[in-house]
Structures
1.
Amino acid sequence: MKLIITANGLQDSRMAPVKELAEEYFSSVVMNPWGRRGTQGEIRAIWDAADAIICGAESFDEKMIQGTPSSLKVLSHYGVGVDSIDIEAAKNRGIVVCNTPGANSTSVAEMALALILSLAKHIIPHNTHTKLGEWKRFPIFELEGKTIGIIGFGATGQALAKMIRTFNMEILVYDPYSHDDIAKKEGVKKVDLNHLLENSDIISLHAPCTEDTFRIINRESLSLMKETTLLINVARGDLIDEKALYHALKDRQIAGAGLDVYSREPAEKNKLFALENVVCTPHCAANTFEARLKMGHMAVENAYRVLMGLPGAHIVQARE
């Protein structure tokens, strides 16, 4: 069996255990040769006779999938969000799509917490002005007694809830697909979206980008938030209408935002970067060594299990 690994990062020498596992399962393994995200043309040039592809954020749209070799049976995504893959087109082509749920939940939740604390304590401006010799203090606040609203209560949302409990915050959750028993077990309160938006001091996004969640944060939802609200997004950029967010932040309709993801990436030019009440990182929340290793192992296991007809693969279902 032949495996192509296009996902950027797995060619890192520290990811050697992932390559070793792949070579144990597959007779032929072709690693990403570019040291960056491959273009569609570059991927086509190396995918001949592939039984499985481990992909990252590369675009596998309908046209790309229709052109895949007849041997291809699995697209194993190195990560959780699969919005870069046309799931329906893959299904029609007989290709199984997998992902790695939970593998990076701790890393992403930690980044959300880091952004929350950075904004609450004004770490960035305090650092900047102190280094300039300006003993300037900005107003900061405690998390204890505040309310956090978590939109999307899968593995990452639950991981953040566990971390946030130590701050004695009330935790509100909006997720129509999460079972009530999970909320009860985790000690959080399930509410409707408007209640969460109106009552949260901090709102953290952890939902996949779907037809239902696309731009769930927009002009209307921003208008429901408090002037003191902090908005965190470590999920997907398209959960937010960035134009509406820009105006809400510029006009101090909400207090601040911590962003790791953007509607267009790489985000070389974005008006949000110019705002002093925004903390930005380059979609790196899941980029810890630990998360990458777990995701790599799971992606290889998924591909192998599907091809061998074994249970346990994390298969993404196409929408009916």
Note: The longest strand covers residues 147-151.
2.
Amino acid sequence: MRALITGATGFAGRHLAEECAKAGDAVVAWSSADVDLRDAAATRAGVEAVAPDVVYHLAARAHVGRSWSEPAATLQENVAMTLNVLEAVRTATPRAVVVAVSSGEVYGRPEGLPVAEDAALRPANPYAVSKAAADLLAGFYADAHGLCVVRPRAFNHAGPGQDASYAVAAFARQVVEGAVAGARRVRVVTGNPDTRRDYTDVRDVVRAYRGLAARGEPGVFNVCSGRTASGTELVDTLARLAGVDADIVVDPSLVRPSDVLEVRGDFSRLRTATGWAPGTPLERTLADTLAWWRARFGASSPDPVPGRRPDR
């Protein structure tokens, strides 16, 4: 497939570009420096020039915490970029598959667990509102214009290369900083350490995206692991893998006003449609994240999970 990826320099975008290239796709990777997706004319011209078979739309203001301080920009830009990509496909390459990446955040506070795709959308933060609006917009384009729009709702994902503004990466960086400095006990600053989230390895997440694109049929699909971990459990596991002890320090400024205690998804629809299942244990994800941060600090990184390949 000829694949166009927006947000290709982001965390998931980089891994998706690697996954597509590995599968033999011709990849065109867009960052904000290549095309301003807030500009409708530029977006249409770019899509027309690429003539993709599949458009993976990942570009977004994606940080939940920052969305509280920048709600207007988060809402305006996420919806506008999605609209412009959909309009560009509709007018320039209407036969292309659009993988409009959504978020498990759209469900908000779940009425029951695990959360399936037919659950009500109850977004609980500005980022989630923006993604719910973009998700519904993508569904409208499928229904009203006959586009093949796939809407994967990705729950929390983690792995090597993630920015430290996200929980797992932030915890891993703090653990590695302490370990590299020679500390036996490290101080790890967190938000609410008791909230539980459904984490999937980013390499499994992008494998799901490509599988859905290859299937080429519209629909909504949860991309998740069906398992949860608390902040405390993540920190404890990271510390154990790094060979140190950890003291958790809660920063009140990192505790979100409407934190949901637990979020866990149901990926059975995705498994039925594509055969996908998460293949990377959480401990492997955490170990590879530690190794990535060790490399950033110039430290050696023996494999902390014996007997497993680095990509699994």
Note: The first strand starts at residue 2 and ends at 6.
3.
Amino acid sequence: MHIQHQLVSWDQDDGIKTAVTGMLTSGLSGYSLTHSDIGGYTALDHPLVRYHRSKELLMRWTEMAAFTAVFRTHEGNRPEDNQQIYSGEQTLQHFSRFAKVYAAWKPYRKVLVEEASETGLPVVRHPFIHYPGDPEVYGLEYQFMVGSEFMFAPVLDPGEDEVEVYLPAGQWVHAWTGEVYGSLKKGVYETVHAPIGEPAVFYKQGSEAGRRFRSELERQELL
């Protein structure tokens, strides 16, 4: 399912935040494969209302899309008013980096797509699917799991280089640093450094899918 036609904005009513909301709610409604246009679609240029896609928004949306079922760009309805992946060297290199990140978890994605066809479980999942006994996860709005092994908390506001993520009970490995977070006894909130290029993605300690992902990141010299 394509989460369609968001504004090229950060807002929670029709911007990047609604792409997360749309994926999570669609996954619970039977749509197992979801994605959104990288950077959003709808730009507006009106004396009273103006929405143009910024470079930062495009780059953050690129990071998020790399952890969904489909990694897909869109110029939008007004290409000349939007930052594009080809607008400059920085955006082009960023897109190239996250195309490789997307490719790095291909083996696990194939497993999840097969699981989706057999069970209906979505690729992008709300954490309560796997942690129904943890009341804290029910209030999570803007972080998601990829299958049962990865936890992702995208940066969804401009000018931010850190993000708060909730990690259910257990130990979780930060994909970029290898640092272990979390508690075996209970879920914890962590505020983690998340500069552009290294969004907050974790995998369960001991996860074979996570180990293969990090190994491929290292092989591609992305760490």
Note: The two ends are 31 Å apart (CA to CA).
4.
Amino acid sequence: MARPAVALCLTLALIVAACGGDEKASTSTPVAGKAVACDPSSLPLQTPGKLTVGTDKPAYPPYFEKDDPTNGHGFESAVAYAIARELGFDKADVKWTVVPFNSSYAPGPKRFDFDINQISITPQRAKRVDFSQPYFTAPQAVVALKGSPAADAHRLGDLAQAKLGVQVGTTSLDAVTSSIKPAYQPQVFNDSNDTVRALKGGRVEAIVVDLPTAFYLTAAQVPQAKIVGQFAAPGGDRWGLLLEKGSKLTNCVNKALAKLSSSGELERLRSQWMGGDAAPPLR
């Protein structure tokens, strides 16, 4: 959704999914910075010899576990460390820094080497920052309070009269507007915590988030809610690592991702941390 979005290596099943963004997703390959030698001694880093990785706080499952990106548990933490290994860094040489979701894609210099935080690749963002090739693609999901009219929806049109909520700065807002076409303006909340509290408190009937987040919410945070169904985000919702515009690291990160993809490691990590049962489709 974004994010950015709320999100467990759920030992219960999760599904392939994704979120986080505020504009329509791009279908073009992100532009990479000028190539450099991809070894730690040659890379232009924030801190020489250290790879600085950004993400938001709190850091939610299934992307991170125990709100601790440094433990290597959770899909995005595991992916970040796998990329670091491909670039020649030991785990001890990876530094994490807190980067709020909405500020990550703001124009200007960055204080991280790359950011991993369920950030959708979109044309507008790509004007201001670099994106890696996608490491994940997924649908949106509707989470509704049990017993509410929205919980009985079978089609997107059934949600048009529902009181919906989304997190600011996420592709979920575009998805609601373009796909659900609600009769009432959805309520927009500052972060994932506010979005979840609004659902728990009944201020909204349903919220729209990425599918892995939806599984986590209904399993751990809002058991009085259910996943109504999933639907494709407009143009697709692909997540990429975010880097400073024109970063010389972009090509190296893409090479690392390509190796992880061709070796099957990226799929293994996806399956380990986010594999599972699908939600019913909404059309």
Note: The helical segments are 75-86, 101-104, 123-126, 171-180, 192-200, 211-221, 250-262, 265-274.
